[in-house]
Amino acid sequence: MARRYDPERRQRIIDAAIRVVGEKGIAGLSHRSVAAEADVPLGSTTYHFKTLDDLMVAALRQANEGYARTVLARGALQDPESDLAAELAALGSEWFAGDRTGLEVEYELYLAALRRPVLRPVAAEWAEGFADCLALRTDPVTARALVALIDGICLQVLLTGVPYDEGYAREVLARVIG
């Protein structure tokens, strides 16, 4: 039987992995569950991603890239005349608007790096890239502190189920900015 040319298959597999993690968590992620979700043969998932770690790296990188695009789209973050704390707090509101599944998936994959060292460089890429962006408006140490604070606020909201409070975020971010 001739192979079908399917240039989108790898991307469909990554998208399916993200959906599986969103529905079942990391524990529900397997080559078989992703193949079923992507509607591809099981061999396709193992062809493109030899291990589940490889698949999680690709999924986390894709999630990170989506959030990086959101950050870059907020041009005011680079505008020295804008209120950085207010812009970052508004960014949090944007992340929490509507369905939280994407944010939950990103953090679940991000935290999976605790047990899966192969994910650590990808998790670090996000934090370093975001800090580099913020360092254009403040010093590098403050930029890293802002990233840590934003991560902490997001995790608290996700774990406790309380609504995101943009006013609170703006106030605590402003305190770190000084």
N- to C-terminal separation?
66 Å
Net shape: elongated
Strand content: under 5%
| Average residue pLDDT | 91
The number of helices is 9
Organism: Streptomyces ossamyceticus
DNA-binding region: 30-49
Keywords: DNA-binding
Domain HTH tetR-type: 7-67
Q: Could you please describe the fold and organization of this structure?
A:
With 178 residues, the chain is an all-alpha fold. 71% of the residues lie in helices and 0% in strands. It starts with 8 loop residues before the first helix and ends with a helix. The mean pLDDT is 91. This is TetR family transcriptional regulator. Residues 30-49 bind DNA. Keywords: DNA-binding.
How would you describe this structure in keywords?
single chain, mainly alpha, 9 helices, 71% helix, TetR family transcriptional regulator, DNA-binding, Tet_transcr_reg_TetR-rel_C_sf, HTH_TetR, HTH-type_TetR-like_transc_reg
Concise account of the structure shown:
The protein is mainly alpha-helical.
How are the secondary structure elements laid out?
Elements: H1 9-24, H2 31-38, H3 42-48, H4 52-73, H5 84-96, H6 101-112, H7 120-135, H8 140-160, H9 166-177
